[in-house]
Amino acid sequence: MKEILLTGGLGYIGSHTAVETLNAGYKVIIADDLSNSKIEVLDKIKQITNKDVKFYQIDVCNKEELEKVFAENKIFGVIHFAGFKAVGESVKEPLKYYQNNVGSTLTLLETMKKYDCKNIVFSSSACVYSPVNQMPVKEDGNLEASNPYGRTKLFIEHILKDFQNANPDFDVTVLRYFNPIGAHESGLLGEDPNGIPNNLMPYICKVAVGELDHLNVFGNDYNTKDGTGVRDYIHVVDLAIGHVKALDKIVKADDCGFRIFNIGTGIGYSVLDVVETFNKSNGITIKYQITERRPGDIDSYFSSAKKAEEELGFKATRNLEEMCKSSYKYYSAKKR
Ligand code: UFG
C-alpha cells in the first residue's frame, strides 16, 4: 500500500481528500498544525472510512518537524494543501502569506528531495487565471493573480516548474480548483469557517440556520445572464476524487513531468442560481439583498474541464442540487 502524506489534511478539502484517498486503497498520513482546522476531523475521517490514519501536528514550514515525518515513514507522494487562504487577509498581511504558503512549499520540496520522495500534487486555484481570458478557461490561459493569496499560488506553480525542470525524476501535478462547495454525504465533514464567512455557500448556510439574517449579493450589474457573478461550483467530494485520479496517474505513468489540470465542472452558475437551487433542494427561502460589488470580483469564470477528463479520466458527477443539499445537511447537523 502506497503511503501518501496530506499536508493540511484536516482542512475542508484535505479531509474530503483523505477519505477518498483511503477509499481508493492508499495509506494516508496527515500533517496539520490545526491553525484552521479541528482535531475532531481526524476521528470523522476514521469513522467514515473505518481505516487508520497517522497524524502529525506540525507546521510544514518547520524543517525539523517535517523531516521527522519523512524519516518515520516511507512516503510515496505528497498532496500539498497546507496554506493560508483568506484573500482579504492576504491583502492586509502579504508577508504572512508569502512566508507561510511559499515557505512551506520550499521546505517541503527540500525535504522530499532529501528523503527521495518524488511525487507531489499541489493545491492551486483558478484565481491564477487573468480575468482577460475567454471562458471556459483552459490550462494554457493567461496567468495573472489579483491578490497576494493568488500570487502565492502562482509563484508556487512557477517554483514547482523550475524544480521539476532541475529534477526531471520528480513528478509534479498542479490542480487548479474552481469553487469547491458541498460536504460529505455522511454529514460528518464540511466547511466550517470561523466568524462571518467570505465565501458564498458558507454564508448561505449561516442564513439558512438563522445565524445570519440575510445574504448580501455583491452586485447585480455584471455582464452575466441575471447580472450576478458566475462561478464554476464543484462538489468537494468530486474535487477530492480528482486528487485520487491525479495520484493514480502518477502511479501508472512511465514518465515523470509537470502537469496542470483544471478541476471544475465546466458549468457556470450565477449567485441567484445558487440561491434558487439551495431554496428548492432544501425547502427553505434564503433572504437576500442586492448590495454593492465586492472589490476584486469579476463577472464570470468557469473551467474547461476537458483536459482532466481526457488525461486523468476525471469528470465531476455531483450536481448543484447535491452541493446545496449536502452543505445544508452538514450545517444543520452542526447546529444541533
Ligand atoms: N458572493 C456574494 N455574497 C457573499 C459571498 C459571495 O454575492 O456573501 C458572490 C461573489 O461576488 C461571487 C460568488 O458569490 O460572485 C462567489 O464568491 P466566493 O467568495 O464564494 O468565491 P470566489 O469566486 O470569489 O473565490 C473563491 C475562493 C478563492 C479562490 C477562487 C478561485 O474564495 O480563494 O474561488 O478558485 F481563489
Q: How would you describe this protein?
A:
The protein is an alpha/beta fold and 336 residues long. It folds into two domains: 210 residues, Rossmann fold; 102 residues, UDP-galactose 4-epimerase, domain 1. The chain is 41% helix and 18% strand. The protein has a seven-stranded parallel sheet, with helices on both faces. The chain has a three-stranded mixed sheet with strand order 12-9-14. Strands 7-10 form a two-stranded parallel ribbon. Helix 2 links the parallel strand 2 and strand 3. The model has no long low-confidence stretch (mean pLDDT 97). Bound molecules: uridine-5'-diphosphate-4-deoxy-4-fluoro-alpha-D-galactose (UFG).
List the helices and strands and how they pair.
Layout (H helix, E strand, L loop, with lengths): L2 E5 L4 H12 L3 E5 L8 H10 L4 E3 L6 H10 L2 E6 L6 H6 L1 H21 L4 E7 L22 H19 L4 E7 L1 E3 L18 H9 L6 E4 L11 E2 L1 E3 H17 L5 E6 L5 E2 H12 L5 E4 L8 E2 L4 H7 L7 H16 L1
Parallel strand pairs: 1-2, 1-4, 2-3, 4-5, 5-6, 6-11, 7-10, 8-13, 9-14
Antiparallel strand pairs: 9-12
Helix pairs in contact: 1-2, 1-8, 3-5, 5-6, 7-11, 9-11
The site of uridine-5'-diphosphate-4-deoxy-4-fluoro-alpha-D-galactose has 22 residues, from helix 7 and strand 8.
Write out key terms for the chains shown.
336 residues; alpha/beta; UDP-galactose 4-epimerase, domain 1; 7-stranded parallel β-sheet; binds uridine-5'-diphosphate-4-deoxy-4-fluoro-alpha-D-galactose
